[in-house]
Amino acid sequence: MNWREKLSNITSLNNSLLCVGLDTDVGKIPKFLLETSKNPLFDFNKAIIDATKDLVCAYKLNMAFYETAGKKGNDALEKTIQYIPHNILIVLDGKRNDIGNTAQKYAQSLFDTLKADAITINPYLGKDGVSPFLEYTDKCSFILCRTSNPSAGDFQDLLVSSTPVYQIVAKKIREWDANKNCGAVVGATYPEELKTVRTILGDEIPILIPGIGKQGGDIEKTVRNGANARGEMALINSSREIIFASEQQDFAEQSRKKAEWLRNHINKYR
Amino acid sequence: MNWREKLSNITSLNNSLLCVGLDTDVGKIPKFLLETSKNPLFDFNKAIIDATKDLVCAYKLNMAFYETAGKKGNDALEKTIQYIPHNILIVLDGKRNDIGNTAQKYAQSLFDTLKADAITINPYLGKDGVSPFLEYTDKCSFILCRTSNPSAGDFQDLLVSSTPVYQIVAKKIREWDANKNCGAVVGATYPEELKTVRTILGDEIPILIPGIGKQGGDIEKTVRNGANARGEMALINSSREIIFASEQQDFAEQSRKKAEWLRNHINKYR
After folding, report:
1. For B3-268, which CATH class?
2. Which of A82, B126, B165, B217 has the fewest beta carbons closer than 10 A?
3. Where are the domains of chain A?
4. Does the pLDDT value for residue B145 go beyond 90?
């Protein structure tokens, strides 16, 4: 199924713009899991997915947390992707980027081998570094635009004839959207920039929005500025605040409570 | 051993600025290896390393080619890193980038788990996305500055008060070099930009230079513009032209010939 249809269906079914980030840090998952499970990263994810799958539109797996755990991490990544219900969007967040012939390999790895529905990529290399990903017309590529971190502005806010670089990137994203499979990444920590990017992108390009929760992004502004006129096409991500809600036996239940609160809180402003 | 000492020693010992890129594409290695070897990616790399280890200052492994081969690829990557002689610099080319707490995971994965001496990273997120890598003071982080691909200029050449973005990145690299462990990536396909970046960086920051060979970069200009005043601190990379010199039984021997010619040709202009 095309990513857009999948996102649209699950957004309606679960009445949700919430994307749960499975940033499964082996140093932060409940200690008892490390003692009782042979594959604690996967078992942790499985419990979180079981507890939240009726509340989300997407799961986002940040690849750094799996790579750093070596073979066991890659194994947990693959098993998790297989375990996520087929009607929920899977975003692999690797921020990959390279010249054309190499970008094509990353695209193959993420979409063909790992079966992602959507990915994140970095635009610094320009169009021919992005094109190999966009050739996968049934998949979505979220291109970094204005990131959520404190020094995002170092290069993204540089002014080019009065226009900040991130806005030029946003305009390029709209231009590159010929196959209707581009998305943008904009941090919730910068609500005004989010509003500007939504205006540039129009209503049909999705925005993946990290920065809610630990990073401090405001929920109301995020929804009002990031969603389109129909209150859709925003994937509002929370990772640590949801998945590490508790270190006790009831960790999954506590995650569900956080996710449910956030899903509903987001919906207030749609 | 600190990366700088290692690079300096091997540059002298092998009288070489040549970095061989092990972009080991399973679709391009000799067919007979796929039939005779249980681990063709590793066996291919092993043969190339055996044939070229007295001619290079570094090997660069582009992670995309290993990731796309799944578990077998990751296994070949790890085995290759173990196999490379300890006095040769190992560059893991993944162009990773993320916000601080996640960048720290990538740094851990590349430097601690995979034992790279040097890596490539993408600067789009600004200083706090780069800092976790720079905390590894005995390792080198090559930051993308002006890439070798045709559309590199889409964002890297945007003018900010008459200064192109890639020059602003070069200035930041110099500023971020407090621990003497920054490097820059500049494509050989843009010799004038390479010259400008060398001037900005001074003599002690290394430049990793892809774009020789298939991509068409001129060797003389690359050496004259990219090396420092002592004819050092440039890692001139060639991948496909060397490692895929032949598909026959003598592929490693043919690779050696190409590598030897290139090493010597580079040295003419140092």
Report:
1. alpha beta
2. A82
3. 3-268
4. yes
